[in-house]
Amino acid sequence: MKRRQLLQGLQGGTLVLLLGRAQIAQGASIVAVRLWPADEYTRVTLESDVALKAQQVFIPDPPRLAVDLDNIQLNPALKELVAKVRADDPFITGIRAGQNTPTTVRLVFDLKQAARPQVFTLQPIPPYQHRTVFDLYPEKPTDPLEELIASVQGATAPAAAVGAGAVARGGDWPADATRQTPPQAGHDALGQLLSDQNLLHDPLGDLIARQGRQPPPPAVAAAPAPAPRPGPSLPVPPPTNRSETRTASAPPASPRVQAKVDRLIIVALDPGHGGEDPGAIGPGGTYEKHVVLQIANKLRDRINAQPNMRAFMTRDADFFVPLYTRVEKARRVQADLFMSIHADGFTDPSVKGGGVYALSTKGATSATARWIANKENQSDLIGGINVGQQDAHIQRIMLDMSTTAQIRDSMVLGKYLINPMSTVGNMHKKYVEQAGFAVLKAPDIPSVLVETAFITNPDEERKLKTADFQDNMADALLRGILAYFQANPPLARNRQA
């Protein structure tokens, strides 16, 4: 009956407003409304002093989501939701709100596209009271692998000067002519690299080749694999011109030789927090989620300027991403490295300095590491996830501890990051610490959590907001990443897609 009444009200195209001063005063239980638009999904949050009961129905043509909220009145805070819709919201055209009955408020979300709505409630957790959440996902979920492919297909090397070995603006080659043959006119280094990946039966390379604007010529599939090079292969800087090494008489490469061949290196960057989860807040009111996204964007541009590297962002705007989704995204694109970037806080404002953390299965290496890990692992509670929608496979990933090999590789990666970071600012510890960070539980990807500084320290909060510090930190992290891959070339991808 409730569903039928809801549909009848929508078909009539009217919302009945039965408002009086007494009713408005009595029903003022909504304390805040928030709206977070993003390409992946749009989130609407209603925060109330008591738990709300909601009943919703989705109408596909035209696409609308209607929600009845019981036992509340339409108050000024709830009316603010109508004005919060942005023109660039990928999902919501507008929101209508009305007092459908003396005790029921009806919200109608007019949508730009078909969506898969999720409506759920969250229990109070500081700094929030009761929350009712509306998540609007696209009918066809965004595939992170497709996103990466699209970025590779349409990208030109971004402008980012990163030091002596950096790629210059416009995608120019490094000045070091002893390590790279100057490209001929029309030479597509990235296209050449992707073509070579196809020869190695790289799942990612295969997908890129199949979905590229220009399909690879038939000869590519039958071309012989590159001949082995003397000495270890170094994936950084750009690979040498393969037309000089690939000959008709070259024998097929063995699996061991294939493992030494240069290929596209994928670095997953994870700006911490976002959306409902602000992260740590500095004494001047600076949000951690904002500064780490700025640093991650700068690092992304520097990585993408390397001819044989691409960065993948777990979030590229101010929206919340659950911890398990961050891990799954990195695994989906077959990342060679996972770096979660933070600017955390502590109870003592005098604590300062950067730090690098890896996963531990045996407890934290210090009280500070344990405190930071516990705080970061609360992100899902603060940001708000629909527990009922978690896939069982994802849950197993997060419950399973990473392998010993992954932790060992993560510790090695962390050591390569500490020295460059120490040139930018103080380090809280001169070694890699360990704790049980949920976001580092990718069982097959070297994963580290980088604390760029402590935002709760007044001096470091001021630094974090400056472009100079952000640029220097991005440069330092890039130097550490390049040094790690220089000493530890990634294997050719033989993993299951």
Give a structural overview.
The chain is 33% helix and 19% strand. It is an alpha/beta fold. The chain has three domains: 2-138, Immunoglobulin-like (Sandwich), CATH 2.60.40.3500; 145-177 and 186-258, no CATH class; 265-487, Zn-dependent exopeptidases (Aminopeptidase, 3-Layer(aba) Sandwich). The strands form three sheets. A six-stranded mixed beta sheet has the order 10-9-11-14-12-13, with helices on both faces. Strands 1-2-8-7 form a four-stranded antiparallel beta sheet. Helix 9 crosses helix 16 (467-487) and helix 14 packs across helix 16 (467-487). The protein is globular. The two termini are 47 Å apart. 41% of the residues are buried.
Offer a few descriptive terms:
four-stranded antiparallel sheet; single chain; 497 residues; Immunoglobulin-like; alpha/beta; Aminopeptidase; 14 strands
Topology:
Elements: H1 2-11, H2 21-26, E1 30-36, E2 42-48, E3 53-60, E4 63-70, H3 76-83, E5 92-101, E6 104-111, E7 115-122, E8 130-138, H4 144-154, H5 189-199, H6 203-211, H7 218-222, H8 255-258, E9 265-271, H9 288-304, E10 309-313, H10 323-332, E11 337-342, E12 355-359, H11 367-377, H12 379-383, H13 392-399, H14 404-422, E13 433-435, E14 447-451, H15 458-464, H16 467-487
Parallel strand pairs: 9-10, 9-11, 11-14, 12-13
Antiparallel strand pairs: 1-2, 2-8, 3-4, 4-6, 5-6, 7-8, 12-14
Structure summary:
The protein has 16 helices and 14 strands. It has 497 residues and is of the alpha/beta class.
